[in-house]
Amino acid sequence: MKVAEAFKKDVIKVNRSLSLRKLLDLFRDFHTHPVIPVVDDNSNLIGVVYSEDLLDLLRPQQAKLFRNIPFTEVNEDVFDLEPIPYMGELIIVDDIMTTNYVAVKVDDQLEEAYKSMRLHKKERLPVVDSEGKLVGIIGLFDIIWQMFKEKGFV
Hints:
Strands 3-4-5 form a three-stranded mixed beta sheet. Strands 1-2 form a two-stranded antiparallel ribbon. The protein is elongated, with a radius of gyration of 17 Å. It has seven helices and five strands. A hairpin with a 5-residue loop joins strand 1 and strand 2 (about 45-50). By secondary structure, the protein is an alpha+beta fold. The longest helix has 11 residues, at about 110-120. It has a single domain (about 5-150), classed as CBS-domain (Roll), CATH 3.10.580.
């Protein structure tokens, strides 16, 4: 089974110059995808914005530094911080997007996409064609549904 059989083509995508305020509106209206792909003018995938990237804007700097170190405890109560009101217009996607992202190709095997999700602890990944253009998103449930379909359950 290939990714092409399971991925969703209906995907929200943004460009790197979109403001934080507009990005947050998109997340609110299309919240089923915890990842928003960032593309250039030719639809090439150049980055992604995860929910974590947005939370990083509200975390104290030291919490961001120690986030991936096991057994460390840092007070990262995002509810205690006071963001600057106009930062929604000053911060753009390019400031917060992750450029070290994981994507799968439309011709990859579903098993490889699943392994990649597990390895990188992601439930959804962007899907690109052979030229690196964004064509959709595949999620863990998409893979599960396709496996059940192949077994004749659905």
